Amino acid sequence: MTHPIGLSIRNGTKVYPGTIALNNVDFDVRLGAVNVLVGENGAGKSTMMKVIAGVEQLTDGELLIDGKEVHLRGTADAAAHGIGIVFQELNLFPDLSVSENIFMGRENLQFGVHIDRKRQREVTQRLMERLEHKISPDTLVGDLRIGEQQIVEIAKSLAVDARILILDEPTSALSSSEVEILFKVIADLRARGVGIIYISHRLEELIRIGDYITVLRDGHITGARSMEGVDVPWIVQNMIGSASKDFAKSVEHDFGKEVFRAENISLLREGGKFVVDNVSLSLKEGEIVGIYGLMGAGRSEFFECIMVQHPHSTGRFFVDGEPLTEKTVEGRIRRGIVLIPEDRKAVGLIQMHSVRENMSLSSLRDFTRWFHLDLEKEKKAVMDYVRDLTIKIASPENPVSSLSGGNQQKVVIGKALMTKPKILLMDEPSRGIDVGAKAEVFREMRRLAAEGLGILFVTSDLDEVMSLSDRIIVMSNGRITGEWDRKDTNESMVVAASAVGHARATHIPEKELAE
Amino acid sequence: MTTQSTTSASNPTANSQSALLLILRLRTFIALIAVFAFFAFAAPNFLTAANMVIMSKHVALNAFLAIGMTFVIITGGIDLSVGSIVGLCGMVAGWLVLFGVDFGLGWSIQFNTLEIIAIVLCVGVFVGMINGLLITKLSVAPFIATLGTLYVARGAALLFSDGRTFPNLNGNPEYGSDTFVLLGAGSVLGIPITIWILIFVGLGAAYLASRTPLGRHIYAVGGNEKGAALSGVKVNQVKMFVYMFSGLCAAIVGLIISSQLVASHPATGETFELNAIAAAVLGGTSMSGGRGRIAGTIVGAFVIGILSDGLVMMGVSSFWQIVIKGLVIIAAVVVDQAQQKIQSRVALQSQAALGK
Q: Which residues lie closer than 8 Å to A442 by C-beta, 6 or more apart?
């Protein structure tokens, strides 16, 4: 079966001040196929997509659509050529409804001025049905969770009937059942002759869904071929130029005494539904417990309850057997609990402030006598953690926004560790960071556990929860639906437990997609 | 952007860029020197000692308000009520000097100067506290909350005297309030007391901003409120503090003005809040929060003050003065934007150089 080439880049070079993002690359997008693009953060994937989507122009080289050279002057220009993109960073308006977001910039008009809301709502409703999501077209996007927002973002690109559709890490915030739905939609689009460019850090996913693969490293293309015969080690080798970095293997150590316990935590949302439903769990020193579940299972909300973000939640927490009575975040941090939030950009860091100021923000008390802040001591401590965590920074005074995703995540981890916690809560610790940084983060988690820290982490990635956890807890619909030591369980048990309480079967066999 | 894209990017461009960046960083200071030098030539009597003293007193009033305003703006808020607090505090001071507190029992309580100062400062802080409570507990947007207190405080000031001026605040030696006039007119070591107070408040505020956890928290709240809250910053307490501090600064100004004029008028301080905002912005404070410096603000206040006094001395029409002031503020913000862009580019470059 042959796939016609719809778009290609020849000798594409893109230079930013001080850095070459793309270096003489050739790239083809085949129609009616899934063109997978993979590479570490900063390899140039996003730049290439921006070029294709008309956001940026090539410094040198040419962009061909159907064999003819074109110059895309903007996203509208690209859209006119049938190119649609779902950016990795969500580009949504939180205070507008789902349907308003989907039709942003190309509203359905009557008489050229009046927005036909009814029609927009209907179309939105149909898109949501196609994506098998019960999101009302009138819900404000700001009220949706990140994964749901991503669904809206995908729906937005489906609405334009693109001939070439770019999906930049569409699954990073989706649970496995949602990923399956997305794959079905992709298979459907592919059958209709749409050329899909698919970017992801989840390698198994790429192998499963891709027809062609292109690997980028430092602005160069290091591998491009049909997906037949491609396996994970091949991808990883082309990506990082060396043999596979595996998940950090557990350093065998004994667990200490119980360090944290939650008893009967419940959180009621409007509508009388429990978001967190009577959750109890405990954590020992040196233990890594992974909480797996679908989106909306209540995992993040449970963490938020621990960090007093929901004052009306009920239940009790204990640290070292003593009840946790502090009612402020600061008080809980002092008791040794610290949260690494899911959304690094929105709540994890203050983007415009320096690395130093970000890292020390939660632990300023340690550098303060009476009211005087010892800047020397602060800087020294920050540099210690920068070194320990091998954070790549030119200067601790540079704004955090100038760092790559992986380094930013390490800054967040450094900030948490500087509070000298006993319990580390990590919400999706590997979200949006590349393979190399991921491996480092996982190694770091192992090392911290070996030093006696109790780690509770939430993930939607099955591999991650299987290979990193000492114990696995599965949540579904706010309840704990499964809890095992890792050695006593397997992937299908975990997946089955994550679907408890959901009406339809969530695991679709792979064959269905490959037909 | 594309004009920058030579393949051998970094060194020469980076150097010239960091030089440019330094100039941009010091721009308010450079503007101050330029304005000063200009008037030294253009305006007769500008450089006389007497003029310096008068001018610095003018500047000081705005500088106090601008210092308080800077903290508020750094948290991402705004305080429109400071001008009215100046008026209200002036009236309270005038009342206390003239009448003391009379409960209508045939006797009254009279206060000495220190007591009057303490009470007036408390009034300023109290109005600031109302602002803070509205914003933190009742979630009123800072713009609206302080707009409300702007009217309430101004109305209260007018009610105090039925719109009349309290004249002759010379105080009474019997009660120990005759020293009240020294606040505005006295001097120590040849420098007006007003300026001493400004030095004290200015240094204190600069120390607070850069060397205390509270200062750090103020920046954090403005930079990312949600993020700061999850990092253990007590956001509401920080906000309460900045509005109360702004009220305190306004009260100081109210005291100084009524002492300088030996009278208090309820309309005192109208549009002062706008001058304070202008000084803060001129000094590099970002209206969206998270960024700003006390030193910059004080220099900004001096630029505005010297500009308006200098223009007066040159005999420029007061209408033109207003136009010029507006243009200077706009220019300052435009340059500030340019600085932000270059600064982030330099940071990105140094980060990119690291990746090689």
A: A247, A248, A430, A464, A468
